[in-house]
Fold this sequence. Notes:
The complex is a heterodimer of chains A (367) and B (314). Chain A is an alpha+beta fold.
Amino acid sequence: MAQVSIRKVVKEYEGGVQAVKGINLEIDDHEFVVLVGPSGCGKSTTLRMIAGLEEISGGEIAIGGGVVNDIPPRDRDIAMVFQNYALYPHMSVYDNMAFGLMLRKFPKEEIRRRVENAAQILDIKVLLDRKPKALSGGQRQRVAMGRAIVRDPKVFLFDEPLSNLDAKLRVQMRTEIKKVHQTVKTTTVYVTHDQVEAMTLADRVVVMNHGVIEQVGPPQELYHHPQTKFVAGFIGSPAMNFIPTRLVETSGALNLELSSDIVLPIPEDRIGRYKAHAGRELLFGIRPEHMTEVRPNDHRPGLASFHATPEVVEPMGAETLLHFWKDGHEICAKFDPGVAVEPGVRTPMAIDMNRMHLIDPKTDRVL
Amino acid sequence: MALDATTITETGRPAAPATGGMTLQRFARRRSTIAFLMALPLIAVIAGLVAWPAGYAIYLSTLNRRMTSFIGLGNFEILLDSETFRMVIWQSCIFAITAVVLKALLGFWLAHMLHHIPTKGQRVWRGMLLLPWVVPPALSTLGWWWMFDPSYSSLNWLLTAMGGPSIPWLGEPGWARASVIIVNVWAGTPFFMIMYLAALKSVPDQLYEAAAIDGATGWQGLRFVTLPMMRNIISITVLFSLIVTFANYDIVRVLTNGGPRDLTHVFASYAFQVGVLSGNIPRGAAVSLFMFPLLATVAFFMLRGVNQRNREMA
């Protein structure tokens, strides 16, 4: 087990295209870090550079204190789980898991002990004699994880391991991966494009976009305090609403003018933070879950209300999503399913202004 | 409700006499009938060009030289008693096995080299390396014959220029056997190369990446990933080549014509020699039939392995 240090790492392909643009990241021992971002953001490339499957164009990567830039994958003491599992189709499950140990010349008894132990953890003991062809997707995924576990490496690397599974199995395997990490506690770097996976699994989430790290932090911090518009929009489902607005100062108070008829007051504790931006055109960011029905007995400070006419109503069971459009921008609100809402009917809504974000459209940074 | 003919049959009562048209239509619409009709041209070709000649050869091999009377296995007994024929069996086996092994090894090496050339340059090399296989063998063998010629041999000219000895390529039995194998290997290697190249390309890169992370060196990757993944293609290519090489005729015929002293004859060239040139058609047929059980046995075991692996892996 070990720390992983990524220092000013650059990946440049032929023709000068930079997939990773000088990122820095320190991953602690035992930590579960998830790299998340849209496709092409450089997350998989970063993982593959840690694994040694891609050369590093600039900067350095250290595993357990030693720089590994020029060390081949086999000597880095890492294990990797691939998106399509990459099981050896000609080997039985047992041999697939034992292969790495066999190459490292472990004694037969030790190999057997480790494989059976891993099979026990993953509940695949009955599959050990089968070939990968005879396994379901979820079972193959377990075997791929088993292959990583038996090695007892310094670092686990996961490259979108759940993408090929159906939704139900994905949730199940997600829990499984978390459980395995809690058992073996190996430092883990996990790549996914699914922010739900990132939020549920990670000790820390690293949000990447266009080859740079947008923000690093625990899931709750990213959710409550995004630093950029990208992170604000990427984390959370449905995504945060962004509405163009003007910040207006009137006799000491600050208001957001969304339109002539919707003016929202900024909570008092935030006035100091935003004052310098008074008079500017900004983006108002609010998550759907902070835009709800008006609850008669809710008198928290910072609640504002307005009326809107939803055009689409989506009952999801646990909640109801309302979609309405303002000046060409789609806005989503999340209502309690007990509240009757009809599309096309003007509906009162409450906004929890304590959860709002203001974004500078020039820098895309959250103010 | 009116009952139609089908209902009656299905209820177990004697079928009403259906009209001929109906039955024919239904027969023509059955999937198995359509499949049979579509395969019919191929069945006809196989029957006409394979089954009938094979059956006829078996019939011929049981006749006497003048094809006037039935002698049973007489031709086979005479052949097995003949020292020349026992030598032909021996030479055929040595020729086919040596040539196929060399072709397989060289083909694998070439395929591996090609596989690691960037795609852009690969096509040119692939084209050039395929040439020996594309040229009609009788013509290319004629070229080799010139190169092996005792008086004008360009190979010997090169050898002596480098201070080496002059080699009686086609005159001395050992060298003549080697020459036949060399030419066969030269002409047949590209086939292995192209088959192996296709097989190499079909191995997913992620398997190599997984092996590299598991700790495999390049050699171990080849041994534990590449070769097992290619086993089916290797088996089928080797089997196919073994059949073709065993039945090879043109190279021996053009290069040595079986000589010196019948020492380079293989089944096909000897069958031609006995059957056509010496006019003993039944015995020639018997010679050519000898290949069948040999190849059938090899084919049986190799294809069984292929099927088994297909079931387990694909």
